[in-house]
Amino acid sequence: MPRPDLVRPAPSPESEAIARHFARVEADLLSRGLLRTDATAPDAPFSRRAVVENFVRIALYDEYVTRAGALVPRETPSRLRRWEQPIGLGLVFGETVPEAQRTRDRAEIDAYARRLSGLTGLTIRQIEPEQANFHVLILNEDERRSIGPRLRAMVPGIDATAIRTIEGMPRSTFCLVLAFSSGESSVYSHAVAVIRGEHPDRLRRSCIHEELAQGLGLANDSPAARPSIFNDDEEFALLTPHDELLLRILYDRRLRPGMREPEARPIIETIATELMGGES
C-alpha cells in the first residue's frame, strides 16, 4: 500500500484523453525513426561552417514576436542573451502527477543540470521552488490552465501575455520555455519551462532537454540544424554533440550579452575554429 502522503488525486478525464493522444504521437514518431537518442549520429555529420550558421540563427534570432497580446511565430533578428548568474532550478509538479513519474523526472533534471553546468560554466542546480529563478513546471492539463496566480508569485512582473501563453497552450505545443530580462537588459533573470505531465517518458525527456537548453539563451529553432534538438522536425530527442557546441559558444566570455550578428559573427567564427579545428 502506498503511504497516505504519496496518494495523488486522479487526473481529469480531459487530462487522460490528452495522455492517450500523446502516447499515440510518441508511438507514431518512434515508428518513423524520430525522437532519436543516439549520441553520435554518424549519419548526420556537421561542419564548422554549419555550427557557425546554426548558432547565428538559433542564438541571434527570435522565434516569436508579440502581437495584440499574443506570441506570434515570426523570425526576427535579435541580440545575444544568456544568464550571468547561478541558476536555481525550481521543480514544480501538478498535484495529479504520479509519484513514480516525479522521481524519474527529478533524477533526469538533476543529471541534465550537471551536464548543462559543465558546458556553460554556470552553477545550475535544483533548489527549493521558492528560491528558484528558473522554474520547471510539470503539469497536467487542469493544473496548467489555472497556474496564473502561482506564476505571478514565482516571476515578479510577469506579464499577461506570458500567462495567457502558458494557460492557453494548444495541444500542438508539446512544451515551452519563456525567459525574462529586466527592462532592456540582455541578461536573463527568470525563466519558466512548462512540460506536459501527460507526456509519455520519451516525449517528456525530449521536452526537458529542449526547454532547459533553450532557456539558457538558444531561443530559436532552425530547420538546417542537424543533429539537433533545436529543430522542429523531432528527429532528435536529446541534446546532441552539435548542440553542446552551441552552448559552449554561447557561454564563451568573448561573447557578451546584447551583441548582434555583425559584431558577434567574427568572434563566433574564432570560437568554433578553436573548438572544432579548421575543417569547413
Helices and strands in order:
Layout: H1 13-31, H2 48-59, E1 61-67, E2 70-77, E3 82-83, E4 87-93, H3 99-120, E5 124-127, E6 134-139, H4 141-145, H5 148-154, H6 160-167, E7 175-181, E8 187-196, H7 201-214, H8 241-250, H9 261-276
Parallel strand pairs: 3-8, 4-5, 4-6, 6-8
Antiparallel strand pairs: 1-2, 7-8
Helix pairs in contact: 2-8, 2-9, 3-7
Name its key features.
280 residues, alpha/beta, 6-stranded mixed sheet, two-stranded antiparallel sheet, 9 helices, 8 strands, globular
Order of helices and strands: HHEEEEHEEHHHEEHHH
State the share of residues found in helices, binned by percent: 40-55%
- What Rg is obtained from the alpha carbons, in whole angstroms? 19 Å
Number of helices: 9
According to DSSP, the number of beta strands is: 8
In short, what is this structure?
By secondary structure, this protein is of the alpha/beta class. The chain has helices spanning 13-31, 48-59, 99-120, 141-145, 148-154, 160-167, 201-214, 241-250, 261-276, and strands at residues 61-67, 70-77, 82-83, 87-93, 124-127, 134-139, 175-181, 187-196. It is built from nine helices and eight strands.
What do these coordinates show?
The chain is of the alpha/beta class and about 280 residues long. It has helices spanning about 15-30, 50-60, 100-120, 140-145, 150-155, 160-165, 200-215, 240-250, 260-275, and strands spanning about 60-65, 70-75, 80-85, 85-95, 125, 135-140, 175-180, 185-195. Strands 3, 4, 5, 6, 7 and 8 form a six-stranded mixed β-sheet that branches. Strands 1-2 form a two-stranded antiparallel sheet.
